[in-house]
């Protein structure tokens, strides 16, 4: 075994500078290095941060969404921070709603055999003949996307899944984004944290 | 030619996969009863102003540094740890944290086109800055992950020092691998495998709880397993702390060599005095060190090569690579059914050829990254070996500035009082 | 008093406190254990049967959906089960939440108690026996050995991983072309060049000569006429007739199976196809007498799927119009069956291109160019443009296409040569018809695109409802041609009907019944006319007149002019979705049940 190797006296590897050599000048070279490191750290913090693009939260793009159902299960929260949001202006207010009713439903009522939502979170209200308003009871909604799938397949796509920003814990690496097969999730700035499809651009025909 | 399916189509098209977007199948009604649309419920995020986050961190770091260096009180440091678990852990739900910020900074540095918010940058640099001056006070009482483990380290035992050295290398591997994942765009592994965040949120996946629970149970006896053997940020803090100016000392005054503190540190972070009875051959040691220094470049290159060789293995962490493999297998008829990912991919406008090209580009990126990762591990390996071959003499019982977490346990064991200091 | 002394624990034992703390710790520990066991049990139970996708309910629902009549017992069963499932779900969610708090509380009490216990019965600090074991030097040596061992294990692991892992991702092909003939080169034997040539092109058009463009133009070989862009070569079609009284009606014939596809004409033969879910037929009529000469019923071709495709009512099972070229006619059906028959009704070749993944049903019409039959086989995934040799149906080239559409190809003779134009639901793409080489692409469409491209005044026009109508011009003398947007129009846009262009104007007809005339130079709307009924069929330019059939079968005939000048509005007598064929002095129109030939005199 080696006996002594003192050649490394003041170099950087001399880590555990023992209590023997305590006497240091007022502002040593090491102090200077520390100060330099501090300045570098401050500068680095400034450099790597781009205050202009405050990408912050996560949101899913309903245009890409495939309604695979993973939003309900992949979120770190239970129940998920993703819920169904209704863009009413796009809705056809149909009596026979693909988002509300099971495919091939025998009647347009809220019987369990006809209703699509597994937790009865979609509420149906008569507006005027022949139109019905569909609203979401958020406390019940689990973000499974079944109604969204139905609405996209047979309707105007007004029911959409969105990350509810007031529930979301804004993970650094969104667990649903990681599991999303359609890669519909993206980081969004605070100011534009929802990506709802709306009527804009052309508009829909009036009845 | 034909569109606008009538209502009966609803019954016919039972199994239509619904990505036919942007089609207004039904006209928007014009209401006569004066009905007005409710507004869609899209509440803004509940934000904590960046200044509060930064102030909280800076305050917590300052208080901990004061408690450790001035007050020298274990109980108060522990109380600080409890407070940090409550605020940074349970209240802020473990995000944002400096441990994860390593990845955001790496992401900005490798140029993945994503800036780092200023708060995150501060969270990355501030604890390092404190470490340069005061040692790892961040670990002592600010980091919620560390603090949770510190609180639950109820019956700590010392593990053998050689084992400590080996296990410590895992943290380097984790850091290197996390940066590799960032560089290749495979994800934020450190956040993904954060073992304790599930507890802070009181919710999470089963596997997360399993990993966290096992770590905490181990941590009752082997104190702070995550901090010592895994934490990627700990590696950086260790290196900053080695050069720290006012690092905590075991004794408030002069060491009297009483050896009472010898077994007080559960982290094996007390350097014992170098014994005088140096073993036999001083030459052999010198030769070994010389050989090691000569071999270091070769070892690093070899390690880089092993990384390069296993790049295809590592590349499977990337979802796009996995998707490309799946799609290729499906094209060859290996699977009877398409996976959800593959189905979603096929609904998009990209062709399998595009995907393969993308996977190929990624593979090349993984080649570089894996080689660098291997070389980094080679450096870490050689560094440890060299450190174990170099003798630095010291007479007293002192803290190993790199490994010491400033937990303040050892203070109680030192019989020397502050009044004994010969000022 | 110095701080250090005050803050130092006393290392003083307190037996009572220790006992109490340990009792509390044991109780809290047991409690935490029980709660975590319950939580794990709850989790496993939830995972085993996720109440929200209960297979039992799914089964019952399917049963109910399949039953014709309402079934109260079944409904009741579903309701009961569903209630149970929802209860189970919400209860378990509440349990999980409550359990998490309980566990947390237990752990806090446990930690506190154990901490107190540790304080009240401290381990006194005692130095190790005299000789520290293992000694300072031994520890370092052991550590070096162990690290070396770890490094060795690491390397072995890495090499094993490297040896056993190969990514199964194919090397991407250099070109995007798909299904190009690949000759499996046999190891060791290299074929002579000529032989290789022969293998690549098994039937390099031995003796058949294909009709030239001039001959094609004298016929009505595909949807919307020669080149499929809606311009008739003959300008002598009648402007007035009466189906009721038979005025100017040369003949009327019943068509056995209905379909929305349009008639195609070659010499004295008129072709149509018709289909139901399980029957596919091609009809040939004599153009002078209207007599059904033969009907060919397709059998099962190679690869024909057993199940009928899912189509919408409007699209039905035979939406694509046939293509006819020289001595043969081809038809494609919604299940992907493609058949080529000669003029006597004999099958020359047939194949299935794979069931199209298309939620309304395949709708793109066929078009022939020289020796090639060009199929726009757009669908959700694996969409492609396929060129088949008309002589035997072998694939000459296939080009991958990204996105679904219901539009049909147009083949236009431009100053820079023939261009094959295909719309998709995102863009319009131009190909070289003989090679499939992409000439240019322009992203200017969106939605579900069914209208096909138009050509007039040196411009292409593509349009779709909820998108825009875009006129595309070309810089002079550039090869390959470089597209440029000349103008765009957004007010009234076609849904299924295709636009048509003349030398001075473009005409759009919408599903809501608007007819819009646009100035070809500027894109400004010259006029707009509202029709009571919407349009599915496409307008055809016949000389200086435009013919346009609405859904009820009324034909609006107006002048190609800056103002709306109606020349007549005779009717076909019943609903019509097809675009008529215009030959010398004759119109062949398909209605819901009939094929009608209109001829002056």
List descriptors.
heterotrimer, A: 207 residues, alpha+beta, two-stranded antiparallel sheet, 4 helices, 6 strands, 19% helix, elongated, disordered C terminus, C: 601 residues, Methylamine Dehydrogenase, Chain H, 2 domains, five-stranded antiparallel β-sheet, five-stranded mixed β-sheet, 24% helix
Mean of residue pLDDT of chain B? 86
Q: What Rg of chain C, in angstroms, do the CA atoms define?
A: 38 Å
Oligomer kind:
heterotrimer
Judging by the overall fold, what is the CATH architecture of the largest domain in chain C? 7 Propeller
- What is the approximate shape of chain C? elongated
Number of helices of chain C: 7
- Strand-pairing-aware structural class of chain B: mainly alpha
Largest interface: A-B, 100 and 111 residues
How many β-strands of chain B, per DSSP? 2
CATH superfamily of the largest domain in chain C: YVTN repeat-like/Quinoprotein amine dehydrogenase
Describe the structure.
Helix content of chain A is 19%, strand content 16%. By secondary structure, chain A is an alpha+beta fold. Chain A has a domain at 55-192. Chain A is elongated. A two-stranded antiparallel ribbon of chain B has the order 1-2. Chain C has two domains: 9-120; 213-599, 7 Propeller (Methylamine Dehydrogenase, Chain H), CATH 2.130.10. In chain C, the strands form eight sheets. Chain C has a five-stranded antiparallel sheet with strand order 1-15-14-13-12, with no helix packed on it. In chain C, strands 2-28-29-30-31 form a five-stranded mixed sheet, with no helix packed on it. Chains A and B meet through helix 1, strand 1, strand 4 and helix 3 of A and helix 1, helix 4, helix 5, helix 10 and helix 14 of B.
């Amino acid at each position: 075994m080696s006996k002594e190797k003192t050649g490394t006296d003041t170099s950087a590897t001399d880590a555990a500078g023992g209590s023997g050599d305590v006497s240091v000048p007022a502002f040593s070279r090491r102090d200077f290095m520390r100060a330099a490191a501090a300045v570098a750290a401050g500068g680095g913090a400034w450099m790597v941060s781009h205050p202009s693009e405050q990408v912050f939260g996560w949101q899913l793009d309903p245009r890409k969404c495939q309604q695979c159902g993973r939003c309900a299960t992949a979120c770190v929260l239970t129940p998920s921070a993703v819920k169904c949001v209704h863009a009413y202006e796009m809705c056809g207010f149909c009596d026979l709603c693909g988002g509300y009713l099971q495919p091939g439903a025998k009647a347009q009522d809220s019987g369990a055999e006809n209703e699509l939502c597994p937790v009865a979170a979609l509420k149906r209200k008569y507006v005027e003949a022949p139109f019905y308003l569909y609203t979401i009871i958020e406390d019940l909604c689990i973000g499974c996307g079944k109604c969204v799938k139905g609405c996209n397949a047979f309707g105007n796509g007004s029911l959409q899944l969105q990350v509810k920003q007031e529930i979301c814990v804004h993970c650094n690496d969104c667990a649903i984004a990681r599991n999303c097969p359609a890669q519909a999730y993206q980081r969004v700035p605070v100011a534009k944290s929802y990506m709802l499809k709306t009527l804009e651009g052309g508009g829909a025909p009036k009845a | 030619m034909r569109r606008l399916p009538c209502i009966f189509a609803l019954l016919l098209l039972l199994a239509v996969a619904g990505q036919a977007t942007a089609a207004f199948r039904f006209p928007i009604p014009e209401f006569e009863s004066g009905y007005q649309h409710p507004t869609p419920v899209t509440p803004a995020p509940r934000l904590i102003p960046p200044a509060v986050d930064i102030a909280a961190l800076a305050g917590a770091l300052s208080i901990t540094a004061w408690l450790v260096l001035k007050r020298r009180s274990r109980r108060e440091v522990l109380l600080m740890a409890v407070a940090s678990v409550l605020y940074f852990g349970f209240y802020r739900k473990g995000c944002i944290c400096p441990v994860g910020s390593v990845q955001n900074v790496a992401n900005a540095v490798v140029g993945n086109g994503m800036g780092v918010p200023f708060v995150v940058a501060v969270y990355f640099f501030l604890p390092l800055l404190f470490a340069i001056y005061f040692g790892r006070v961040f670990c002592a009482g600010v980091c919620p992950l560390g603090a949770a483990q510190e609180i639950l380290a109820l019956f700590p035992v010392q593990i053998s020092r050689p084992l400590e050295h080996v296990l410590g290398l895992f943290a380097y591997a984790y850091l290197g691998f996390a940066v590799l994942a960032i560089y290749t765009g495979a994800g934020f592994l450190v956040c993904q495998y954060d073992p304790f965040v599930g507890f802070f949120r009181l919710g999470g996946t089963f596997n997360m709880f399993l990993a966290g629970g096992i770590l905490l149970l181990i941590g009752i006896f082997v104190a702070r397993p995550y901090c010592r053997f895994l934490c990627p940020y700990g590696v950086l803090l260790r290196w900053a702390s080695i050069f720290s100016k006012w690092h905590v000392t075991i004794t408030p005054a002069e060491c009297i060599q009483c050896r009472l503190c010898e077994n007080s540190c559960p982290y094996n972070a007390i350097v014992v005095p170098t014994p005088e009875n140096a073993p036999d051959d001083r030459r052999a040691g010198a030769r070994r060190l010389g050989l090691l220094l000569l071999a270091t470049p070769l070892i690093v290159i070899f390690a880089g090569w092993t990384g390069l060789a296993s790049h295809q293995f590592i590349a499977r962490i990337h979802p796009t690579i996995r998707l490309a493999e799946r799609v290729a297998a499906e094209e060859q008829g290996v699977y009877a059914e398409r996976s959800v990912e593959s189905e979603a991919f096929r609904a998009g406008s990209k062709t399998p050829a595009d995907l393969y090209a993308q996977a190929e580009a990624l593979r090349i990126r993984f080649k570089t990254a894996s080689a660098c990762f291997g070389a980094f591990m080679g450096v870490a390996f050689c560094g440890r070996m060299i450190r174990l071959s170099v003798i630095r003499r010291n007479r007293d019982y002192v803290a190993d500035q790199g490994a010491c977490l400033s937990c303040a346990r050892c203070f109680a064991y030192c019989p020397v009082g502050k009044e004994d200091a010969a000022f | 008093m110095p701080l250090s002394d005050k803050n130092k624990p006393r290392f003083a034992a307190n037996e009572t406190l220790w006992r109490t703390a340990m009792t509390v710790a044991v109780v809290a520990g047991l409690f935490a254990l029980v709660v975590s066991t319950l939580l794990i049990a709850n989790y496993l139970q939830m995972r085993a049967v996720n109440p929200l996708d209960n297979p039992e309910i799914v089964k019952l629902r399917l049963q109910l959906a399949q039953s014709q009549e309402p079934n109260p017992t079944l409904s009741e069963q579903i309701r009961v089960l569903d209630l149970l499932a929802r209860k189970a779900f919400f209860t378990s969610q509440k349990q999980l939440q409550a359990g998490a708090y309980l566990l947390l509380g237990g752990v806090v009490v446990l930690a506190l108690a154990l901490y107190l216990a540790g304080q009240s019965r401290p381990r006194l600090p005692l130095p190790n026996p005299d000789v520290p074991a293992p000694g300072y030097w031994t520890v370092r040596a052991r550590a070096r050995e162990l690290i070396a061992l770890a490094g060795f294990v690491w390397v072995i692991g890495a090499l094993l991983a490297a040896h056993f892992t190969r990514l199964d991702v194919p090397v991407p092909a250099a070109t995007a072309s798909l299904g190009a003939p690949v000759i499996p080169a046999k190891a060791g034997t290299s074929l002579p060049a000529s032989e290789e040539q022969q293998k690549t092109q098994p039937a390099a058009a031995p003796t058949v000569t294909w009709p030239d463009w001039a001959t094609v133009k004298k016929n009505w070989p595909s949807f919307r006429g020669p080149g499929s862009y809606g311009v008739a070569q003959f300008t002598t079609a009648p402007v007035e007739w009466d189906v009721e009284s038979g005025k100017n009606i040369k003949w009327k014939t019943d068509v056995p199976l209905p379909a929305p596809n349009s008639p195609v004409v070659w010499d004295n033969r008129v072709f149509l196809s018709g289909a139901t879910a399980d029957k596919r037929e091609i009809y040939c009529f004599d153009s002078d007498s209207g007599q059904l000469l033969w009907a060919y019923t397709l059998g099962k071709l190679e690869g024909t799927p057993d199940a009928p495709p899912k189509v919408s009512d409007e699209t039905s099972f035979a939406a694509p119009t046939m293509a006819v070229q020289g001595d043969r006619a081809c038809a494609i059906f919604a299940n992907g069956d493609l058949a080529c028959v000669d003029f006597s009704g004999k099958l020359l070749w047939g194949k299935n291109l794979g069931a199209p993944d298309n939620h309304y049903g395949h709708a793109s019409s066929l078009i022939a160019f020289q020796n090639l039959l060009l199929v726009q086989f757009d669908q959700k995934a694996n969409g492609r443009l396929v060129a088949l040799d008309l002589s035997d149906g072998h694939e000459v080239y296939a080009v991958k296409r990204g996105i679904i559409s219901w539009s049909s190809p147009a083949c236009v003779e431009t100053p820079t040569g023939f261009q094959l134009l295909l719309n998709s639901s995102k863009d319009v793409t131009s190909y070289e018809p003989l090679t499939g080489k992409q000439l240019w692409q322009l992203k200017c469409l969106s939605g579900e695109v069914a209208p096909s491209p138009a050509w007039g005044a040196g411009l292409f026009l593509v349009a779709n409802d909820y998108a825009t109508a875009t006129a595309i011009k070309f810089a002079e003398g550039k090869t390959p041609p470089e597209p440029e947007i000349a103008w765009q129009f957004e007010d009234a846009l076609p849904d299924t009907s295709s636009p048509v262009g003349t030398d001075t104007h473009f005409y759009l007809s919408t599903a809501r019944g608007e007819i819009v005339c646009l100035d070809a130079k500027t894109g400004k709307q010259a006029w707009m006319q509202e029709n009571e009924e919407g349009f599915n069929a496409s307008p055809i330019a016949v000389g200086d007149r435009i013919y346009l059939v609405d859904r009820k079968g009324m034909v609006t005939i107006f002048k190609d002019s800056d103002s709306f000048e109606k020349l007549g509005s005779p009717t076909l007598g019943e609903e019509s979705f097809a675009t008529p064929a215009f030959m010398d002095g004759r119109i062949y129109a398909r209605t819901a049940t009939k094929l009608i030939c209109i001829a002056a005199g």
